[in-house]
Structures are given as C-alpha cells and as structure tokens.
Write a structure and sequence with these properties.
This protein is α/β, with parallel strands linked by helices. α2 packs antiparallel against α5 and α4 runs parallel beside α5. The strands form six sheets. The protein has a seven-stranded mixed beta sheet with strand order 14-17-18-13-12-19-20, with helices on both faces. The longest helix has 21 residues. Bound molecules: adenosine-5'-diphosphate. Adenosine-5'-diphosphate binds next to α7 and α8.
Length: 485
C-alpha cells in the first residue's frame, strides 16, 4: 500500500459516511503533468447536496453549543493529523494539481497553520457590555456562529483554500458543506479522512463532489444553509452572490485579480527581480495574487528586463512536480494553455517583444515555458485580463502618478506590489492603490495572521487573521430589562 492510499478516496463524505452519487455516475480526475487519469469521484447533484446540508444543520445544533476550548482542541487534533500525514497529502496534491512536491507540502502545512491560528482564535471571540443609557437595563453584545456554511473552492490551492475557510468556520461553531473543484477533489476528500481520525463529530465537515451549478444552486436556495464562502472566478462569484442575496445569505467572495507589480527607479532592482519571480511565476502563474502586469520606470526598464530574463532562464524549470528539480509544474488543463498562448500572441501582434520562453514545453502534460515580453502597452489583453499562467508582460512608465493611474485602471482590486526605497513614496503609493493587499518591497505576502481579501470585482470579506472570523459570525444584542435598579 502506498503512502497516499488511505487518503485517496473515490467517495463523498456526508455525515461521516463515504458514499457514491445517487446516479452512480463519476467524474474522472486527470494528472496535468502526464494527461493520465488518476481516479474518479462521485458526480453528485442537488439531492446529495440537500442531504449534506441536512447533516450539517443537524450537527450544528450541538457543535454551536460546544465550548471554544473543545472546538479548539479538536482543531488542534486535526492539525496533528495533517502534520503526521503531510508527505502523503502533498503527494496526492501534486498528483491531481501538478505543483512541485515541496510546494505541495508547503501548501498542506500552510493550510494547517490557518487551522492552528483559528484554533487559537476560537477562545477570543469576545462580545461587549455597552454602557447602558437606562439605569435599570444592561446591554450585552454576543457573537454567534452563522450556521451551516457552504464552501466552494478552486483547483490552484486544493488544500489550503479549504483550510482557510474551515479554520474560521470550526472556530466560530459553524458546520460545513465543502465543494472542491472537480479538477482537484482528492485533497478535499482527504479532509474527511483527517476529520474522522481527529474525532470531529459527524456532520460538522461534509465534502461532496459533482455538478458545480447543481450543488451551487442548492447551496444558494436551501434555507438551512446560511452562508456561502467562495474562491474562484469573478463570473461564478457574481452568480453565487446574486443567488445568495435573493435568500439573504451571508457571503464571502475571493475572486479574480489583475495584480500590478511596479518597480520605481529608486528600487533595489535585484530584490525587485526576486519578487517578480516569486509573484509572477509561483504556482506557474496560477494564483489570484500573481503579478499580471509588470510596470517598470523608464530609467531602469532595460536593466530590469535583462535581469528578469536571466533569472527566469537560470532559476525556473518546468517539469513533473514529482521531480525534485522542478520549479514550474504544468498548467491545470488545455484551456489554461490556450489562454496563455492567446495572451502571448495578442501581445506580440501589438508590438510586444518576446525575450524568453514563448512555447509549450514537453511532449506530455500541459506545460508552458516561463515567458517574458517587453514593450507591453495598454491595448494588450493582459492589461485588462488575468492570464493565470507564466507570462510576464513588462510595461514602461515615467512618473509616479502615471504608475498609480495605470495600476488602478482595472475592475479588479486584490493584490498589488511595488518596489521603492523612498519612505514617503511607500506610503503615498500604498494609500493610492485601490487594492485589498499591498506588497511593498515584497512579492509574496500571504500569511494566516494577516487578512486576505479584495475590493471591487475581486470580492468581499477577508480570510485569515482576526478579521477572518467576522464573516462567520452574527452579532446579537440582548437588552436585560426590569432589573429594579
Ligand atoms: P476557475 O476558472 O478557477 O476554475 P471557477 O469559478 O470556474 O474558477 O471555479 C471555482 C469553483 O467554482 C470550482 O469549485 C467550480 O466547480 C465552481 N463552480 C463553477 N461554476 C459554478 C456554478 N455555476 N455554481 C457553483 N459553483 C461553480
């Protein structure tokens, strides 16, 4: 039996039972590094979703009444399970998603950090006593879990995206129905195995796979489910948000981005190159906080482009994530390859100059070379669309004001980055950028202790940090009157 066998589940997890779809239908899961099928998962729909919501609603009655200490200890037991099985979970993740094994392990353990952070936060969900305007009344504010939470997650971080949501949900006393991407369901189903091992009560965590629109609409319509937390495209996020609004459900939306990465003339160029490599090419460019548009001030443009080209060629190596030399896993599927190719062709046809990469790599799987194009301009598709792949376009700018205007010229507002050594500029530009996350002289800024969330079309709500709890809590005001005082 291989290391991953106990976690490789081809059934959905409802009320601590492992089940097939009612129809018996399944969905195949493909390894993007080889194009081979690695397994299949149930193709569930509305009926199974309703049953999972029922199980979560039943479990909520007792789970919400547990002490924070109790929930915290169970969450820490879950963390122990993750830590003990991190190698197996990483291998499973690499098989279904493609990222290098060490990054997969980093993701698994990163997810565990979110769970641990929220296990600690569970004890700090404070309320308030408000000084009363009436002598004979006392005013109390408490925070209560919203109830059953539906979580819909994408394929680019199949494990940690779930952990972020699960951490806040379990800490506050909510129960969950999780629907992972059909492209990467196994890392999600593994949470069922881990939850069972950790002793989390039946129905608190349910994981089901299948027909996304059918599952999503049941989540939006079913009155027993009170909140939807979604990470994915802006298109699907808007659809879910409008359907959830019709039923007055709470929502958290972590949607697409179009991150600008600005390098000012006074920056440390080597640091900026290092940051651009991390921010642009991490996960082969498949993160919603990946730099999408690189803006470089005129005086250092050529030097920066040359150094970035050298760094890309020296450091980045596409290949199967199981190979320890690999830094760039495959793109998730053929659609992703098509999008990168189209953005590249569009850029070159509008005057872009290809300085490295530019082609599909390898004979099998869906690999694309890390690619850099100079002479970018605002008419190119990358200026307004998220590429979600390893393509860096370098735009030239002259002034600080111009950089800010260009950076903000998008409907998205998730992450942005800029490099400068000038303290005044650091504050000025940070305040002027209309984004939820700002990296100043840093290309990777995500951590469980800080909030993560976008503005504009990038969504609403925050994950991680103390702010991440708010989306899972209702505020209750109780007025104790008739006190005879
Ligand atoms: P991506 O382009 O990153 O795959 P999507 O928004 O399409 O982004 O997918 C993110 C998640 O949303 C996945 O779990 C997917 O199955 C799910 N999804 C896609 N369409 C719908 C829908 N109509 N209703 C609910 N979930 C959906």
């Amino acid at each position: 039996m291989s290391l991953i066998t106990p976690f490789f589940k081809d059934a959905v997890f409802i009320n601590n039972e492992w089940l097939a779809a009612d129809s018996g239908e399944t969905i195949d899961v493909i390894n993007p590094a080889t194009g081979e099928k690695i397994g299949s998962v149930p193709n569930c729909g509305q009926a199974e979703t309703a049953r999972a919501i029922d199980a979560a609603a039943e479990a909520f009655k007792s789970w919400k009444a547990t002490t924070a200490d109790h929930r915290s200890n169970l969450m820490l037991a879950l963390c122990d399970q993750i830590a003990e099985n991190a190698d197996a979970l990483a291998e499973l993740l690499t098989l279904e998603m493609g990222k290098p094994l060490n990054e997969a392990k980093g993701e698994v353990l990163g997810g565990m950090k979110y769970l641990k952070f929220f296990a600690e936060e569970a004890r700090r969900i404070y309320g308030d006593l408000i000084p009363s305007p009436w002598g004979d009344r006392r005013l109390m504010v408490t925070k209560e879990p919203v109830g059953v939470v539906g979580a819909i997650t994408p394929w680019n971080f199949p494990s940690s995206m779930i952990a972020r949501k699960m951490g806040a949900a379990l800490a506050t006393g909510c129960t969950m129905v999780i629907k992972p991407s059909e492209l990467t369901p196994f890392s999600a189903l593994a949470y069922g195995v881990l939850a069972e091992k950790a002793g989390i009560p039946a129905g608190v965590i349910n994981v089901l796979t299948g027909d996304a629109p059918a599952i999503g609409s049941e989540m939006c319509d079913n009155p027993k489910l009170r909140k939807i937390t979604f990470t994915g495209s802006t298109r699907v996020g808007k659809l879910l948000a409008s359907n959830a609004a019709a039923n007055m459900k709470k929502i958290s939306m972590e949607l697409g981005g179009n991150a600008p990465f600005i390098v000012f003339e006074d920056a440390d160029i080597d640091k900026a190159v290092e940051g651009a490599i991390a921010s642009k090419f991490r996960n082969s460019g498949q993160t919603c906080v990946c730099a999408n548009r690189v803006y470089v001030q005129a005086g250092i443009y050529d030097a920066f482009a040359a150094k970035l080209k050298d760094a890309v060629e020296a450091q980045l190596k596409p290949g199967n994530g199981m190979d320890p030399d690999t830094t760039q896993g495959p793109l998730i599927d053929e659609r992703a390859i098509t999008k990168v190719s189209e953005h590249l062709e569009d850029a070159v046809s509008k005057g872009g100059k290809l300085i490295t990469g530019g082609s599909r790599a390898g004979n099998v799987g869906t690999f694309f070379e890390p690619t850099v194009v100079t002479n970018a301009n605002s008419s190119m598709r990358v200026a307004t669309e998220e590429t979600f792949g390893p393509l860096a376009l370098l735009f030239k700018f002259d002034s600080e004001a111009e950089a800010i205007e260009l950076a903000n010229a998008t409907e998205y507002g998730l992450a942005c980055y800029f490099y400068t050594k000038d303290l005044g500029r650091a504050f000025r530009v940070s305040e002027a950028l209309e984004y939820g996350l700002v990296g100043i002289n840093e290309g990777v800024i995500t951590t469980e202790v800080a909030p993560f969330g976008g503005v504009k079309d990038s969504g609403m709500g925050n994950e991680g940090s103390k702010y991440g709890l708010d989306d899972y809590l209702n505020v209750k005001y109780s007025c104790f009157g008739g006190l005879g005082m």
